[in-house]
Structures are given as structure tokens and as C-alpha cells.
Design goal:
single chain, alpha+beta, Rossmann fold, OB fold (Dihydrolipoamide Acetyltransferase, E2P), 2 domains, six-stranded mixed beta sheet, five-stranded antiparallel beta sheet, 9 helices, 20 strands, about 25% helix, binds adenosine-5'-diphosphate, binds magnesium ion
């Protein structure tokens, strides 16, 4: 079993603390993505789990064994890095088998395991080449091959696709997903790319400044972000934010914003509270003026083919609306919009926390 458990894990470099007491349970076989902006501590977390970085405080267990003081070799984890770290003078086959050789496996066993990894990763034709003769995507597959031949308890990936072009990234994403379905090895995948995190992981852990802000299934985070930070970080294009103010209303609660008023049956905030209204681009719909919640000025149309992103202005504020391609032709000037009540997000403007509304 290879569940991973972090209890109040802290990292300090000298006097500077960068990880502030992280608690997290990862199930055996689970695929978890750590996502967050650059510098939030993703690599540090991963390197502590790998044993490449000492843990300053708290407890780390892998498969029920406390491993705080266990050497990387003793943890039975395999890490795949962004820069691949292949040996340039060795062939693909030798690179994949290197760890087994160091472990003292017999050459027949090594050959068998290398062949199996090469088959899984479609590297069979390339086994005699050297890394310099490979494309970026092929090199990345070799790096993964080196990890899978060891049959580790845990795979750790640190931004493994960030050196690849966009098309290859999507292909490799699919391949990593297939690999996990096939091997069911507990995996932690670090990325700053929320799309990668959302598409790959069973569970996404959002980090910010060395703390977990929220974790959950990808759609949970998308549909119920617990704060404005997660709301804006997850989803592309970004969620639109309109600043507003809670005003009294005889029909419940109301939020006044620059361009209109939203009336709600219930809102967990007092009259006078300053809030942020969050609306995703796909939850805004062009409509007749009489049904509109507010109207925007269309500025730029970005036609993606399947749909169109209309970049609009509401007062001085930019707002993006996702519209079906056939409804977007020739849009210009004033555009009346209505929004889905059930996809409305309200945040406390000062703390950023989600406010319950209905
Ligand atoms: N060896 C180190 N010494 C001092 N500070 C470090 C060291 N490594 C990372 N940090 C700091 O720790 C924080 C988290 O870094 P890192 O884990 O690399 O972030 P991420 O991978 O999310 O971009 C950053 O503020 C970084 O400057
Ligand atoms: Mg990093």
C-alpha cells in the first residue's frame, strides 16, 4: 500500500519559512495534482516527499511508515523532472535500465523490464538512439520509462511537460493518464497549469504561499471554489469579477454593482458589505434587453471555431463572455446579458472567502 500522509509539514530555509504546516492524505492509487502560481511551494513539497529536501517540522508517512529521516533510495518513489535529466552518452535503453543496473539486477531482467517499459511508452524503435537524437516528447517518454521500470510505490512528477510545445503537451497528458490507468501507482503531479491539473488528476490541491487553499475533485473546485483566489485560478478564460455592495431589499438580499442589481433570496452578508460577484464566461448569455441582468459593450470577438469569446466592457471593467459560434456573428455595440443564477459566486471582498447565497 502506498498512501501518503502529511501532517503539519513545515519547511524552513534558514529563518524563512516557505511551507506552513500542510496536512494532506493521499489514497493508495490516487492521482493528485499540486497546482499554484510560481513560487507557492509545489516543488518544495514534492522534493520533501521524494527525500531530496529535509522536512523541518511535522510528519510524512508513505505506506504507513514515517519517512522523515529515510533516504530517497529507501522511500521507493520515482521522480520525473521538467528537464528530464537523461545521460547523454547512454542509449535510450541504457537510460531506462540504469536504475535497475545500479540496483544490481541481472542483465536478462533489465532487458525484460526495459522492453516492457518501451512497449508501454512506444519507445521500441528508439532504444538504440541517444537522447541528443530524440525530440522533446521522446525524451520525456524516456524519463518516464526510467521511472516506471523501477515499479515504485509512488510517482512524483515536477512540471514534466513544461518544456514541450502545446500540441505535444496535450498528447503527453493523454499518455500520462493512460499510464496511470494501467499501473494505478499513487501519483503526485506538480504543475502551474490548471488545465493540466484539472484534466489529469482525481484530486487537485491548490497551493498558495506555502499553504493548501482548497483541495477536491476538479469539478468541485470549478463549481464551488471556496475563495476568490481559487475561483480565478481555476478555469480558462478566468472568471469575471464584478465588485458590488450589499443593499437592503424587501425581496431578500440585493447586491448593487456598476451596471445593475442582483436580487437573491438569501445572502450570508450584512447590508453594507463589500463583495465580489464572480461569473464565469460560459454562464453569461446574450438575451433580449427586457430579460437582461445588465448590458455590456462588445469590444473584441475571439472566434475559436466551436465558440467565440466576446471581450466586453461593463463601465471600465473588462468582462469575457463565451458564446456559441453561430450566435456570435457580427456582434457589436451593446449586448444585453443574463446570467445563470445557480452558477453565481459571491466572495467577501476583504477576505476573499466564498459567501453562501441562494
Ligand atoms: N534552496 C532554497 N533556499 C531558499 N529558498 C528556497 C529554496 N528553494 C526554494 N525556495 C523558496 O521557496 C519558495 C517555494 O519555492 P518552490 O517550491 O520552488 O515553488 P514552485 O515550485 O511552486 O514554483 C519560493 O519562495 C522559493 O524562493
Ligand atoms: Mg517548481
Amino acid at each position: 500500500m502506498a498512501q501518503i500522509s502529511l501532517e503539519k509539514v513545515i519547511k524552513r530555509y534558514g529563518a524563512v519559512q516557505t511551507i506552513h504546516g500542510v496536512d494532506l492524505e493521499i489514497q493508495d492509487g490516487e492521482f493528485v495534482a499540486f497546482v499554484g502560481p510560481s513560487g507557492c511551494g509545489k516543488s518544495t513539497m514534492l522534493r520533501m516527499i521524494a527525500g531530496l529536501e529535509e522536512i523541518t517540522g511535522g510528519q510524512l508517512r508513505i505506506g504507513n511508515v514515517v519517512v522523515n529521516d529515510v533516504e530517497p533510495k529507501g522511500r521507493d518513489v520515482a521522480m520525473v523532472f521538467q528537464d528530464y535529466a537523461l545521460y547523454p552518452h547512454m542509449t535510450v535503453g541504457q537510460n531506462i535500465g540504469f536504475g535497475l543496473k545500479m540496483r544490481g539486477e541481472s542483465s536478462s531482467i533489465i532487458a525484460e523490464k526495459v522492453a516492457e517499459a518501451a512497449r508501454i511508452l512506444q519507445l521500441e524503435e528508439l532504444l538504440d538512439r541517444r537522447p541528443g537524437q530524440l525530440s522533446g516528447g521522446q525524451r520525456q517518454r524516456v524519463a518516464m520509462g526510467r521511472a516506471i521500470v523501477r515499479k515504485p510505490k509512488v510517482f512524483l512528477f515536477d512540471e514534466p511537460l513544461s518544456n514541450l510545445d502545446a500540441k505535444l503537451r496535450v498528447e503527453m497528458r493523454t499518455q500520462i493518464k493512460r499510464l496511470h490507468r494501467m499501473l494505478r501507482t499513487t501519483t503526485i503531479y506538480v504543475t502551474h497549469d490548471q488545465v493540466e491539473a484539472m484534466t489529469l488528476a482525481d484530486r487537485v490541491v491548490v497551493l498558495r504561499k506555502g499553504e493548501i487553499i482548497q483541495h477536491g475533485r476538479p469539478l468541485e473546485l470549478y463549481e464551488r471554489p471556496n475563495c476568490r483566489f481559487v475561483a480565478e485560478f481555476i478555469g480558462s478564460p478566468q472568471m469575471n469579477i464584478l465588485p458590488g455592495r450589499v443593499v437592503s431589499s424587501d425581496r431578500g438580499a440585493a447586491i448593487e454593482f456598476d451596471g445593475g442589481t442582483i436580487v437573491l433570496a438569501r445572502l450570508d452578508a450584512p447590508v453594507g458589505a463589500i463583495v465580489d460577484i464572480g461569473l464565469r464566461p460560459e454562464h453569461l448569455h446574450p438575451c433580449a434587453a427586457a430579460e437582461a441582468d445588465f448590458a455590456v459593450d462588445v469590444d473584441v470577438l475571439e472566434e475559436l471555431g466551436s465558440d467565440t469569446l466576446a471581450v466586453c466592457f461593463l463601465g471600465g471593467r473588462e468582462l469575457t463572455v463565451r458564446i456559441a459560434a453561430e450566435e456570435s456573428r457580427g456582434l457589436s455595440g451593446k449586448l444585453p446579458l443574463r446570467f445563470d443564477r445557480k452558477h453565481l459566486h459571491i466572495f467577501d471582498a476583504s477576505t476573499g472567502r466564498r459567501l453562501e447565497a441562494a
